[in-house]
User: Which sequence fits this backbone?
């Protein structure tokens, strides 16, 4: 049996001290294989972003562990890349320099100047923006800025790619294009990918597997989307799965002490 690229075992994480302590994650475990896209669904406040930050090594769980290719994660890892909803581009740097930003940090691979330049060029090429390397963020559309942010993550040549609602602020057409781009890139690069989203349809169109994080900080449902890409024509299959996900979400929110978070769209 092959070892998963990313593995989290019994993660528990909360805030505050007893008796008023709030548990955000309560023994969460998951594994993501090479080249697999896992979508993390759940109502607002269920702990999806907290889980993603724990997987990135940015927050330390109260108990449990995270490992990347079998090595325990004790902090940020050079082969784990994280992208947020906001592209977070530095306005005084060009698109190319934004993509290369961070490649010289201490925990990154030691690269020559030529190697860094090639990483930037290759990443921009992958997202279709090689000709926009000299543009400043103010000259980029929302979709272009998000592609630059994705290229910045790709330039690190990650084994694990973590995405926190990266397309939610985009218009419908641009968002669909970015979703298709993500599927192509993961298929090519073969990184293990976790995508946090509020959008069930996005999860169904992009992910190989969907995990629903419930209001008690535990997974309450798993769905395998065994359909080829693109999936636009599989209306019946995706529609049935969407209804099942909504039923599981509503059942979870009806449980005693469930949060008052709004349902998924």
Assistant:
């Amino acid at each position: 049996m092959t070892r998963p690229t990313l593995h989290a075992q019994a993660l528990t994480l909360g805030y505050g001290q007893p008796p008023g302590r709030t548990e955000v994650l309560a023994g969460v475990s998951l594994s993501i294989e090479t080249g697999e896209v896992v979508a993390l669904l759940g109502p607002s406040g269920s702990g999806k972003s907290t889980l993603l930050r724990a997987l990135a090594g940015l927050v330390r769980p109260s108990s449990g562990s995270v490992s990347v290719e079998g090595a325990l994660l004790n902090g940020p890892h050079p082969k784990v890349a994280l992208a947020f909803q906001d592209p977070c581009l530095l306005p005084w740097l060009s698109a190319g320099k934004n993509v290369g930003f961070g490649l010289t940090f201490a925990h990154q691979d030691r690269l020559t100047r030529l190697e860094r330049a090639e990483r930037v060029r290759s990443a921009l090429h992958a997202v279709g923006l090689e000709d926009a390397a000299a543009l400043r963020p103010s000259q980029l559309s929302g979709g272009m800025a998000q592609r630059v942010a994705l290229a910045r993550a790709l330039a690190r040549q990650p084994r694990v790619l973590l995405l926190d609602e990266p397309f939610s602020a985009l218009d419908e057409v641009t968002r669909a294009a970015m979703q298709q781009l993500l599927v192509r890139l993961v298929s090519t690069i073969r990184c293990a990918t976790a995508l946090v989203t509020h959008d069930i349809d996005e999860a169904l169109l992009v992910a190989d597997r969907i995990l629903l994080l419930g209001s008690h900080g535990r997974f309450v449902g798993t769905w395998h989307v065994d359909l080829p890409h693109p999936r636009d024509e599989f209306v019946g299959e995706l529609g049935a799965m969407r209804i099942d996900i909504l039923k599981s979400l509503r059942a979870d929110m009806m449980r005693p002490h469930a949060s008052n978070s709004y349902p998924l769209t």
Remarks:
- The radius of gyration is 19 Å.
- Residues 258-265 have pLDDT under 50 and may be disordered.
